[in-house]
C-alpha cells in the first residue's frame, strides 16, 4: 500500500465509487430517508406541508428530481472571513458537494459558528458548547439525512463531533488541514511554538522590533491550522483515530491538491453512511476512545485533547476519564517527532506517511490499538494503517527508536488538585519534573501581566508561579493562559523554564513545565483558591503528585474565610454557560447536554 494518503475514491470505501454492492440510488436495501418526512413520497405525494416544502425547494431553484429520493447531506461549514485556519473551506465545500452529487446524494451547505482561536475573546473554549448546540439543533430540525463536518481550528472539531453525536445522524469529518511551514532567515518556523520563543527573545532584549516584524511575516504563510502538533492537528488526528474521518485525512496540508480530493471523497462517503445508517453511535465505542487517546499520546499531542475527548465520550455515553489517559500513556511511546515535543512540522509528518504510517508503528505495541472496530470508511480500523510505510524515519519513529518511551501527557493528583491536573511533561525541562519551591500567586491574568516583571516580587528560578481565576468559570471559558511568562529579568539571565501552575489551559503549540487544568478551579472553591505567596508546593511528575505543603488545619482556616467571586455574566449565553459548565476533569460540557436522554423528532407535517 502506498503510504502517501492519496484520498481518492478507491480508498474512501466502495460507496465512493458507486459500486453496486455499496448501496446505489434505487437499490432495495436503501432504508427510508429521514428527509422524505419533509418532502413526501414522489413529486406530488404527501400532505399540505410536503407540498409547501417542495414548493420552497423549487423557489430555491431545485427540480424535484434533483433531491427527491436522494440522501440529503448537510455540509456544516465553519468558514469565515476572520478565521485564517478555515479561509479555504468555502472553496473546499464545493469539492464536498461534488463528491455528494457523484455518489447520488443532494448537498446543502449550512454556515455555522466559526471559532477562531486567533481572534475570538475571551476564548473560543467559551463557545465550544454553543457550536455543539447549534450543530445538534440544525441537524435535528432540518430535512437532512447525514452530515459533513468541516473544521479544524482547535475547538471546532470537538464541537461539531459533540453536536453530531447527540443528533445521531450519520456524519463524517473533513479536517481543515495544517498550513505550510513558516520561514525566517533560513530557519523553519512553527506557528505558536516559535511565536512564544521569539516573543521571549524580544522580551529578553536579544532581538529587536525589526526582526520581530520579520518573524511576524513568516510565521503563518497559507490557509490552514497551526503546522505544529497543536490542538488543531491533535484533534483532527483524534477524529481520524476515532474512525470519524477518512484514513490519512487529518494531516493533508490545507493547500495541497490532495485536500481537494479528500474533501470530495468525504462528500461521497457521507452518502454511503446514510445508506448504511452508520451513525456515530456505531463508531464511537469505548475501544474508539482508547485508540484516540493512544493516538494523541503517541503524537505528543495537545493537553486540550483530554478535555475534548472526555466531553465527546460523555455525548457518546462512553465512560472515559483522566485516569484512562494516564493508564494508556504508561504503555504508549511517543512516535511523532513533531514540535513542540519534537523538531519537525505537520507537512513533514504528512509526507513521511501521515497518521496511517504512525498507527502502523503504534500497532506493533501489544494491545495499543483495536483493529476490528467500525469506522466511517465502512471498513475496520485496522485497514486505516494496514501496510502503511514510513517514508522518513526521523519524523515517524518505531517503538524501538521512539521520541519517548511513554505518552507525552501525565495526569497529576494531590491535595492541590483533587479532581486532577495535567502536564505535558515531555515539553518540560526534565530537571523540574521533581521540584519543590515557594509559590508566587497571581489572582487573574490581568494581575499576572501587571506584576510579572516587578523585581519586588523577588521571583527566582526556584519559585512556583501560580495563576488562578482562569478556569472554566474564572476565565471565563478557561483561556490558554497556562504558559505563564517568565519574568524578563530571569529571561535575561538565561532562565528558560520554571514550574507554573494554573486552572487555565495552554495552547497545544506551547511548551514548558506548565501544570494545567487544576480541578476544581479556584472560582469553584478548589484548593488553588487557598494558596498564598510563599507556600511551598511540590511537583512530582514520576509520582503523579501535586501537593500544597501546608498543614490541614491551616487550610481549613483559609477555607472558612474564602468567599466565592461574583459571576462574570448577568445575562445571555455567558450566564447560561456559567450556570451549567462542568469542570475540566469532566470535559467542560453542559450538564443538560451531556446527560443521557432522547428528544422527540420534529413533525414536519
From TrEMBL:
Gene that encodes the chain: ilvD
SUPFAM superfamilies for the chain: IlvD/EDD N-terminal domain-like, LeuD/IlvD-like
Basic and acidic residues biased stretches: 1-13
Keyword Iron: yes
Protein name from the UniProt record: Dihydroxy-acid dehydratase
Keyword Metal-binding: yes
Family classification: Belongs to the IlvD/Edd family.
Residue span, Dihydroxy-acid/6-phosphogluconate dehydratase C-terminal domain: 395-588
Provenance organism: Streptomyces brasiliensis
Keywords tagged on the record: 2Fe-2S, Amino-acid biosynthesis, Branched-chain amino acid biosynthesis, Iron, Iron-sulfur, Lyase, Metal-binding
Record region (Disordered): 1-33
Highest taxon above the source species: Bacteria
Pfam families noted in UniProt: ILV_EDD_C, ILVD_EDD_N
GO BP, sorted A to Z: branched-chain amino acid biosynthetic process
Dihydroxy-acid/6-phosphogluconate dehydratase N-terminal domain: residues covered: 70-381
GO molecular function, one term: 2 iron, 2 sulfur cluster binding
Amino acid at each position: 500500500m502506498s503510504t502517501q494518503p492519496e484520498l481518492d475514491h478507491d480508498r474512501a470505501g466502495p460507496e465512493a465509487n458507486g459500486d453496486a454492492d455499496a448501496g446505489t440510488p434505487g437499490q432495495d436495501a436503501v432504508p427510508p430517508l429521514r428527509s422524505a418526512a419533509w418532502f413526501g413520497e414522489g413529486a406530488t405525494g404527501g400532505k399540505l406541508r410536503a407540498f409547501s416544502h417542495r414548493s420552497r425547494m423549487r423557489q430555491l431553484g431545485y427540480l424535484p428530481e434533483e433531491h427527491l429520493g436522494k440522501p440529503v447531506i448537510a455540509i456544516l461549514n465553519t468558514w469565515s472571513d476572520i478565521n485564517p485556519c478555515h479561509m479555504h473551506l468555502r472553496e473546499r465545500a464545493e469539492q464536498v458537494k461534488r463528491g455528494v452529487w457523484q455518489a447520488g446524494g443532494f448537498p446543502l451547505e449550512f454556515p455555522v459558528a466559526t471559532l477562531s482561536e486567533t481572534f475570538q475573546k475571551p476564548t473560543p473554549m467559551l463557545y465550544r458548547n454553543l457550536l455543539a448546540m447549534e450543530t445538534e439543533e440544525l441537524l435535528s430540525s432540518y430535512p437532512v439525512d447525514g452530515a459533513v463536518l468541516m473544521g479544524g481550528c482547535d475547538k471546532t472539531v470537538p464541537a461539531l463531533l459533540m453536536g453530531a453525536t447527540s443528533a445521531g445522524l450519520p456524519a463524517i469529518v473533513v479536517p481543515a488541514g495544517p498550513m505550510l511551514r513558516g520561514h525566517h532567515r533560513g530557519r523553519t518556523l512553527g506557528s505558536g511554538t516559535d511565536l512564544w520563543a521569539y516573543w521571549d527573545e524580544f522580551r529578553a532584549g536579544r532581538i529587536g522590533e525589526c526582526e520581530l516584524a520579520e518573524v511576524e511575516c513568516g510565521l503563518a504563510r497559507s490557509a490552514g491550522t497551526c503546522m505544529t502538533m497543536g490542538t488543531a492537528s491533535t484533534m483532527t488526528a483524534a477524529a481520524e483515530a476515532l474512525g470519524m474521518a477518512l484514513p490519512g485525512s487529518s494531516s493533508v496540508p490545507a493547500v495541497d491538491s490532495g485536500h481537494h480530493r479528500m474533501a470530495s471523497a468525504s462528500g461521497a462517503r457521507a452518502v454511503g453512511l446514510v445508506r448504511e445508517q452508520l451513525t456515530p453511535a456505531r463508531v464511537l465505542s469505548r475501544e474508539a476512545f482508547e485508540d484516540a487517546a493512544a493516538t494523541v499520546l503517541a503524537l505528543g499531542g495537545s493537553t486540550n485533547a483530554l478535555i475534548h475527548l472526555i466531553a465527546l465520550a460523555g455525548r457518546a455515553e462512553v465512560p472515559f476519564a483522566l485516569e484512562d489517559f494516564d493508564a494508556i500513556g504508561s504503555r504508549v511511546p511517543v512516535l511523532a517527532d513533531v514540535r513542540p515535543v519534537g523538531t519537525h512540522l505537520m507537512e513533514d509528518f504528512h509526507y513521511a506517511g501521515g497518521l496511517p504510517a504512525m498507527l502502523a508503528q503504534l500497532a506493533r505495541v501489544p494491545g495499543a490499538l483495536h483493529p476490528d472496530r467500525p469506522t466511517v470508511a465502512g471498513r475496520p480500523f485496522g485497514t486505516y494503517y494496514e501496510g502503511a510505510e514510513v517514508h522518513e524515519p526521523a519524523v515517524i519513529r518505531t517503538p524501538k527508536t521512539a521520541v519517548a518511551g511513554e505518552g507525552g501527557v501525565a495526569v497529576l493528583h494531590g491535595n492541590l488538585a483533587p479532581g486532577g491536573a495535567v502536564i505535558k511533561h515531555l515539553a518540560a525541562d526534565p530537571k523540574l519534573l521533581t521540584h519543590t519551591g515557594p509559590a508566587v500567586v497571581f489572582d487573574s491574568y490581568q494581575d499576572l501581566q501587571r506584576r510579572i516583571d516587578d523585581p519586588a516580587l523577588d521571583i527566582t528560578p526556584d519559585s512556583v508561579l501560580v495563576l488562578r481565576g482562569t478556569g472554566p468559570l474564572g476565565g471565563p471559558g478557561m483561556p490558554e493562559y497556562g504558559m505563564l511568562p517568565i519574568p524578563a529579568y530571569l529571561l535575561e539571565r538565561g532562565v528558560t523554564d520554571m514550574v507554573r501552575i494554573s486552572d487555565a489551559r495552554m495552547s497545544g503549540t506551547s511548551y514548558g513545565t506548565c501544570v494545567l487544568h487544576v480541578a476544581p478551579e479556584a472560582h469553584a472553591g478548589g484548593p488553588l483558591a487557598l494558596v498564598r505567596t510563599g507556600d511551598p508546593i511540590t511537583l512530582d511528575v514520576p509520582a503523579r503528585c501535586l501537593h500544597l505543603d501546608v498543614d490541614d488545619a491551616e487550610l481549613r482556616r483559609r477555607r472558612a474565610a474564602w468567599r466565592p467571586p461574583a459571576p462574570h455574566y448577568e445575562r445571555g449565553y455567558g450566564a447560561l454557560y456559567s450556570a451549567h459548565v462542568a469542570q475540566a476533569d469532566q470535559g467542560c460540557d453542559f450538564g443538560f447536554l451531556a446527560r443521557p436522554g432522547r428528544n422527540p423528532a420534529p413533525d414536519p407535517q
